[in-house]
Each structure stands twice: as C-alpha cells, then as structure tokens.
Amino acid sequence: MNFEPTGIDPLLDEALSAIATRSAFSGFKESGSSRIHGTEKPAAGKAAYEACLGQAFRLDDSEADFIAAEEVSPFTGEALGIRYAGPDPDRQFAAARAAMKGWASASVEQRIKLCVEMLRQVDEHGFEIAHAIMHTAGQSFPMAYAGSGANALDRGLEAVAWSWLMMNALPFQASWQKQVGAGDPVRLAKRWRLMPRGPAVVFCCASFPTWNGYPAMMANLACGNPVLVKPHPTAVLPMAIAVRIIRKVLAEAGFDPGLIQLVVDSSSKPLGKVLVEHDQAAIIDFTGSARFGSWVEQHAGNRPCYTETSGINTVILDGAEDIDAALDSVVNTLCLFSAQMCTSPQTFYVPASGMSDGNGRCLSADEVEAALAGRIDALAANPKRAASVMGCIQSPATLSLIDEWTGLAESGRYRLLHRSDHYAHPAGPDARTATPLVLGLDLEDGTAPQEEVFGPIAFVIRTADRDQALQHAADSARRHGAITAYLYSTDEDYIESATDAFAWAGAALTCNVTGNMPLNFSAAYSDLHVSGLNPAGNATLAEPSFITGRFRYAQVRRPLSGDGDE
Amino acid sequence: MNFEPTGIDPLLDEALSAIATRSAFSGFKESGSSRIHGTEKPAAGKAAYEACLGQAFRLDDSEADFIAAEEVSPFTGEALGIRYAGPDPDRQFAAARAAMKGWASASVEQRIKLCVEMLRQVDEHGFEIAHAIMHTAGQSFPMAYAGSGANALDRGLEAVAWSWLMMNALPFQASWQKQVGAGDPVRLAKRWRLMPRGPAVVFCCASFPTWNGYPAMMANLACGNPVLVKPHPTAVLPMAIAVRIIRKVLAEAGFDPGLIQLVVDSSSKPLGKVLVEHDQAAIIDFTGSARFGSWVEQHAGNRPCYTETSGINTVILDGAEDIDAALDSVVNTLCLFSAQMCTSPQTFYVPASGMSDGNGRCLSADEVEAALAGRIDALAANPKRAASVMGCIQSPATLSLIDEWTGLAESGRYRLLHRSDHYAHPAGPDARTATPLVLGLDLEDGTAPQEEVFGPIAFVIRTADRDQALQHAADSARRHGAITAYLYSTDEDYIESATDAFAWAGAALTCNVTGNMPLNFSAAYSDLHVSGLNPAGNATLAEPSFITGRFRYAQVRRPLSGDGDE
Question: Is the ipTM of this complex over 0.90?
Fold first, then answer.
C-alpha cells in the first residue's frame, strides 16, 4: 500500500498515516464540552434539533407525500413528530442511476476530496446530530457526541482513505510490447477506468445508526456509487440530517444530490426486502439483526453484500493481577449504553475455582457473581454517572425482553443474580432506563442462550474449569457469531490458547485490559471491527475487503503509435 | 501497493514488477518447441501422458473405489480409459479442514514460496499436461502448451503475487496509545493474524481447465485455504496431474497433501450442487456455463464466490485503415480453438454502409460477409495451419448445436453465410473438427441470440448504421454478459463513444488491433480479465477483489508493558 500523503486534504493524509501505523488518531473532536466548543455552538445545535420537532423534514423542495416516522424519545417518552418524504423505491433508484454517471466521471481525487468535505460538514453539525441520536437511539450525550459523532466520522474517514488506497492500487494506463511470431512486436496502449457498481442500499440500525452508516455511505460514494440510506423507522433523524448535509456538499460542487437519498419506511410497511430484491440495487450494506442479516446475505445473489449483525460476545474471568480493576472494567463495559452495542459482552464465564490474582488472593465463583452485581448497584446509585454510562433503552421491546428473561429466572430456569431496575435519570421519570439483568447458570444446565439477547441482559455461566469455559465461548462465537471476546487471566499458556481459539472463532480478543477505556472501544484506523469469520457479519471496518467489491475496472486496448503513449 | 522485490523467489519479484507496470512478462516458456526444450523432454512428457491411459490415476496409496471418467480424445475419438478415486465430499472436506491448520500456521512467506514452487513444478510437467489438455479439451498442441501451460501458469503466478500484496497490506503488530479520561494514557499492544476462510471448491471447465483453475487454486492456497478441485468429467486428467504435483510439493515441505484434492464426478451423478451447498465449503470458484454459474451465485450465500461464465462477445466492423488486416484478425480470432474460448467473438455487426478505410476504399456489407466466409475457407484449406489454429471440438454436443443452428438457417430464419464443415486434420479422420458456421441476419429481424451460443457458431448482424450497432452490442453485453468486445473504426469520436459504452457494459474493448496476436489474448499481469460489471462473472484476473475475500484478520489487544512492544 502507498500510505504517502496525497495533498488532497490534510485529514485524509493523517488518516492514511494512522492506517499505516495503526496508531491512535481522530480527525474530529470526541468531546462535546463547551470548554472546547464554547457555548454558542452547542446551544445552536440543540436548537437546530428542536426546530425539527413536529415538522416536515425536507431534503429538497420537490418532496411531497410526507409520512410520520416512529420516533419517540427514550429520554422524554414523547414522539418527535417529524415527517419525512414518503418512500418510492422505483423512482429513487432511477434518480440514483441518473445521478451516477456524472459522479463516476469525476476524478478519483475529486470524489475523495468531496467525501472528506462531507465528513467535515457533518461534523460541523455534530451537536444537532448528537441530540438527534439521544432522542432516537437513547444514547447519553457524551456517547452521542463521541461514539456516534467523532468515532463514527473517523470510521467514515477510514473508509474514504481505504477507497483512495484501493482505487490507486493499479496504474490507469500502460504501454505493452510483446514479440508475437515474426515481424514487428505487438505494441498496445492500454487504459483502465474505474467503474461504479450502481446504487447501494445502506441499512442503518436503531441503536447506533451512524457508526456503520458513515463508513458504508462514504465507501460507496468514494467509489462512485449512489446511496439509498434506509434508516430504522425509529431512528431516522440522525441519518436525515447527515444525508441533507451530504446532498448540500454534492450540489454545491455541481453534482446531482440524488447521489444520496433517504428511504423512510415504517414497521407496518417495511421496505427492507423490497430494496434488497430490487433489480436496481447493486450493493447492500446491512447493519441489524442476525435474522434479517442472514436473509439479506441469502438474497444478495452475486451482488457485494457487507453485513454486520450480532452474536454472543463473551468474557472469561479466569484471573487478574488486579481483580477489582478487571471487574470494574467488565461491569462498566456491560453497562455502557445498557449493553445495546454490537460489541457489548453478554456472557461471563466463571470457573468453579473462581478468580485468582496469582498472589494468593482468590474470589470464589459466588464472590465474583456478587462483585458483578454489587458494581452494577454502585453505578445505578449515582444517577449522573449512570446516565452518562448507561443512557436510555432505545426500544420498549427491550424492556419486554428483560421481563421475559426475568420470568425465566423466577420460574427457576436461571439464578437471578441481579434484577434489572429502572434507575433514576436526571432527565426525569419518563426516561426509559434499565440496569442490567444478570442471570446465573451452570454450563451443564444446558440453558446458555444460543443467540444474542439484545440489551442489558447478561449471563454468568459457571464452568467446571477454565478450559471448558474457553471451549464453550469459542464454540459459541464460531457457531452463533461474536464480534468481541474478553479475557482475564494471569496464565500465559492459557492466554495463548485463548488467543488461538478466538482467532479461529473470529472474535476480536481484548485481554487483561483495565482502566478508563471501555473494553469494547473499537478505534478507527487501528482496530479491525468484525472479522468475517463467524455469523456476526463480514463488513470489516476497515481493510481492503470492505472496498474492493465497490468498483470495477473497464479496459480498452489500442495499437500504440509512436514511441511513447498512444 | 508495495511492488518492491521480496527476495522470496525471483519469479515472484518479476511478477510483482510486471503487475506494477502492466508490462509484458512471462515466467514460463510459451513455446513447446524442441529447439528450446530439446527432444528428450517433449518425448518424456508425451510418454508420461500415454502411460496414464487405461490406468488408475493415483494421487496417493490410500485411494480406493476408482471410477471411470468420461474422457474421450477429440483427436482420436478413443476413450482415455483413465480411472480416478471415487468422490466422497464429506470425507474430502474433513480431510481438507484437518490439513488447514498447519498450513494456516505457516508464515505468509513460506506459503507464497511454496506456491511459486508448485507452479514451477507444474511447468516441469508442461508436456505431459499439454498432451492431457489436447486429448480432453481438444486444443491444438501449441495452444495446449502455451495457453493452457505458460499463460495459465502466469495467471497462477499473478494470483500468488496479488495474494502476497494483499496479505501484506497491513502491519501484523502495532502499539497504540491514547489518553482516555484522567491518569495514565491507555497503551495497548495489538497483534493481527491472517486467518483462512476454509475449504474452497474450484470448478474447472472442460475446454480450458487450467487457465482459470490455476489462479483460483493458487489464490486459495496462498491465502491458507485448502482446495477441492472439481474438474469437468470429460477433462479430468490435466487437473489430476497438476493436483498430484502440488500435493507432492506440499508433502515434501512437510504439509498435509490433503490441502488439495480432486473430486471426480460424472454426468450421471454430478456433484457440483452438493459441493456448493456443503456446509464445509467456505469459498467457491466457478468457471462454466452461465446457467449453472447463476445458480452457484444464488446459492453461495455469504461465502466468497468468484465466477466466470460466458456471454456474447461482439465485433463492430465500422471501418479500418487496413480492412484486409482487420478482417484477417477477426477471422483468425473467431477460428482460434474453434471459438471455444470465453473471449471468442460471437456476433459481428456490419452497418448497412459496409466498411470504409477512410481513403476511398469501401467494402459493402455483402462484401464484408463474403470476405469473412472466404477467409474461413482459406484457413480450412490449409490443414496444418487449420489444425494449429482451430484444434478440435471438445464436446460432441457442440456438433449437435452446429447442426441445430444450421437447420434454423435452412428453415429461413437466418442467411447461411458460411456452412460449418469438417476440416481435414493431420491427426486423421476421427479428429472432431468443425469450421465456423456463420449466420446472417438483419437487426430488425429480432433473431439475434440473447445468450452465448457455445462453439464455432457466429452471427453477422446488419444494422441500419454504426450507432445502432454500438447500442445493440453494448446493451447485449450489459444484459447477457460479455468478457470482450472488438471494434474497428477510423473515427475517433465513434471510438470514444464505443469506449464509454463498453466500459459501462463491462466488456474489455480491443480496438483496431491487427497483426499476429490473437485479438482475444489476455495477458497476465497486464490485461484485466472479466470485469464483474455484467453477467459474465465477477472473478477478475487479477486485481485485489480476486483476493480480499479469501482471508480475514484475527485481532488481539493487550496492555502494552514497558516502552516498546508488548
């Protein structure tokens, strides 16, 4: 790869440098603090969000037939009341196709430059989008600003940088000479041109729409493909704002804003399958449930299909130099955004022998379970910190799921290690909050879930020993999918076995990490997110496989005249 | 990309240099002449081929339950009588899986080095394989030695080189530091490991098995994946020889030869679908018919699937500086291996105004048709040259197809411009030969075929003008697939329009080329073969998209201790 500076945009060049070294970098501010931004910009962003409420959201003046979305704030319980232009897939695909030719004819440099500018302009609206994220996804403000803002924009910039790298993998012209039979050699001038595939459908999930949305949108646009963004009907606004900004950047540069459009559907009339099966859909980017993701993969046919679904992320608690620090980290990570992240841990393994620090201190399995529950209670008892860490529950269905699993414990199927409860949120009593439900079981009970249980519902599995834990955790990842795995152990041999087992299972392993960083933080430019090695998806953020299917080469050969080029 | 020399093998380094510059290179001898090889080696190769006849072909000593293949020499009409170990997909996939772990644990350098050595050893058996190709595929000796030998090995080496490039796109370890909250920064040591996907199924076609087979086999092996080779039941021997050689190279280097196996099926008990639908198949490489290829694409699900099928390759005859040279080239290319190549032209467009040289000479459309037919007759009248160019017809089904289309002409549906006939082959009267059938129609008749008609069956379509020809040719490529397109014109504006139209249609355009090189010669390291932009397949030989899906990354993060690495 040629990670050298391009001169196109400093942000791009810094991203390329970070990708080459896998070092920490952010092209955007991760903090929404007024100490950095002053007071005016945050207030203006909030006001811009509030001005959307109860209104028709217009991408352009031609839109008509507005429909109400299903957006209800998890913080206030109130409907946002925003209406969006009704969907019309045939017309929207046609508009995308019509917009594509001009965009594909732009130089790679021009497309890349504009993509970076789109991200910069989206970042300019970071506060507005953060409020939109809060009141649709339910994220706390710090997470909405950083995780759904800067971190997501970084993943977008990473995708732009990889698009640049892959589109420049080969020369665009060459002369070729070969002796064939007698007489003069054959001399040909060859030229190659990058061709887009066609309209991409980008599905965005409800709980974290921008983080996968931005890289998919950027990779497609950078490679010349128009994009139809299909947000979840309960989390339309963040993507609508981003799409409107991107359309403005395109239009101001003289391109057809039809290159990116919003397709708003509803739970009563879902359009996901219609979009995937549409004969004009050329690329699919999907983030969402394993069930629908699997359907998408089976129906993508020969079209590039990039998926991130879900799985069972596991934690093995064998031992730690500092047991308290280890338990702090896993509980904080479990509680982060109420475990509504694709990297949230779901299943904790505790060997019968408990956790040892290698220096004589040992917590029994009972004590480990109690320590996990105790730390959740301590967090919930501090409403300000709880609100910042846990945020709100995106969907009422998650509360129902918690009730359902609580019922299973009450019926004797699991030990009820920690009951989920509402925690007091500073936003008021209508905030939809829930501390994690923690259920205990013995591995031999055979009641370990065989799929992701979405939301703050965790399982502690007691195993005979750590080897049984590792075997079950890795097997679970391989069979049911997993994006991450977490391990605490002081035994290097065991760590090596686990590293190998999770490599084959395709779960990214974080081992013995403690401290301030959430364990599931996945750093753009450095961490590879989603391995493609298990059912949790194939859309690795980001390496060449995330890009290569999005464009193709056209070739033309002619006789070479003269000594030089054609 | 880093195309710098690796020091692993000079052949690899020369291939990387050629890829970077797209210049002409071959790592292998294209001529099988005794002036280069002496007399002993060619004779030994022929003898080795003949020693296979009527015998059981053993890959190793454990094989049992041999079954007869369906191989019949197109040159002699005699069955080869070779038996191969019977297929057992479950057992073979299990053996492939068992072999994979050791191979995946080898360093990238070691795998790459061995892959280059495999190609070198296969080349050592070039004469034996060339005779096997002749008597299964029906290719002439020069084509069997060059096209199915050196040129195919070059495509294989190109795939190894691209595997090297892509597997080295990213560093395998990094240290990462970031300030998160107060206190010490988070410092992590990160490591990545390349993981194979699992067993690949490589389908090889009957008429040109090695040319797509070698790159698929090499890309899979280089990236750590075992391979089950599924040859066409009428053309097993060339792949069986190659597989045996590769197994020997693997075994001698201490690896499990189960990394590459042969699955021999039969037309009465075809196993293609069983292999594709097998839950242990992780990658599919398919070369064959559009119909089955489409089925494969629809059933690959979320597994990487690389296809080359077929389409309608077109020739537009608008004008030429040297009309005779242009017609020589197109007829030679049509006749090459009796149009049984995926790049062979099928449809010729002649505008009503005929062909002009821009200097006053003009051939009417009638004269163009007559000139095409006349050139075929001239070639057929020279049996030695005809044998070298046309070779034999691989399948009796192709003769039936010729009869069928001749009947359509006799019934008045087409004008019979050139009747296909047996040509006298030096090998004797049993050689299955056929000159091209050429059928004429007017575009407005609506009788232009809408799919590939395999073999020496060509169509001349008269159009009102050249624009109509271009529109129809490009539309045909886009809708029905096409790998190549050919154009002769003296008008730069028209050439530019055609270049654009075929770029969007995904057919590689060869424009105004005359001389000794067959127009459909696709040079490894330089020409990109199959665009992925139309139904003719997505397996581009070779650029990153041919490689990236074949391996994945496993990641592990741990606290960084000390100042340096973990």
Answer: yes
| Fold (topology level) of B29-309+549-555 | Aldehyde Dehydrogenase; Chain A, domain 1 (3.40.605)
> Per this entry, what is the length of chain B?
566
- Residue B566 is predicted with a pLDDT of 40
The whole-number pLDDT of residue A565 equals: 43
Task: Please give the residue of chain B at the shortest CA–CA distance from A559.
Answer: B513
Q: Of the candidates B376, B387, B473, B466, which has an alpha carbon nearest to the alpha carbon of residue B417?
A: B376
A20 to chain B, closest Cα gap in Å: 7
Closest CA to A505 of A361, A311, A327, A348: A311
| Tokens found for residue B55 | 């015998």
A459-471 pLDDT tens trace: 999 999 999 999 9
Task: Name every residue whose Cβ is closer than 8 Å to that of residue A561 and which is 6 or more positions away in sequence.
Answer: A189
Chain A environment of B97 (Cβ under 8 Å)? none
For testing the chain A interface, which of B556, B560, B561, B566 should be mutated: the one with the most A CBs within 10 Å?
Answer: B556
Taking contacts as CB-CB distances below 8 angstroms, the residues of chain A near B300 are 302
Report the gap between the CA of A422 and the closest CA in chain B (Å): 27
The CATH-assigned architecture of domain A314-511 is 3-Layer(aba) Sandwich (3.40)
Are the beta carbons of B499 and A531 separated by less than 8 Å? no
Helices B237-252 & B126-137 angle (0-180, nearest 10): 150
Is the CB of B528 inside 8 Å of chain A's CB atoms? yes
SS3 A315: strand
Percent of chain B with pLDDT strictly greater than 70: 99
Q: Which of residues 154-173 of B touch A (CB under 8 A)?
A: 166, 169-171
Sign of the CA dihedral A287, A293, A299, A302? Answer: positive
Residue the block writes with tokens 């017609």: B327
Reported as a single tens digit per residue, the pLDDT across B367-377 is 999 999 999 99
Q: Which residues of B touch A538 (CB under 8 A)?
A: 302
The pLDDT value recorded for residue B562 is 62
Give residue B1's pLDDT band: very low, low, confident or very high (50, 70, 90): confident
Interchain contact B527–A (C-beta under 8 A): yes
Picking from A23, A545, A554, the nearest residue to B549 by CB comes out as A545
Higher per-residue pLDDT: A359 or B200: B200
CATH 3.40.309.10 boundaries in chain B: 314-511
Report how far residue B53's alpha carbon sits from residue A115's, in angstroms, rounded to the nearest whole number. Answer: 62
pLDDT, tens digit (0-9, with 9 covering 90-100), for A438-455 = 999 999 999 999 999 999
Beta bridge partner(s), residue A308: A287, A537
Q: Which tokens go with A179? A: 């002796």
Contacts A184 to B, Cβ<8 Å: 515
Phi, psi of A276 (to 5 degrees): -65, -40
Name the CATH code of domain A46-170+192-309+538-552 (choices 3.40.605.10, 3.10.450.50, 1.10.10.10, 3.40.50.1000): 3.40.605.10
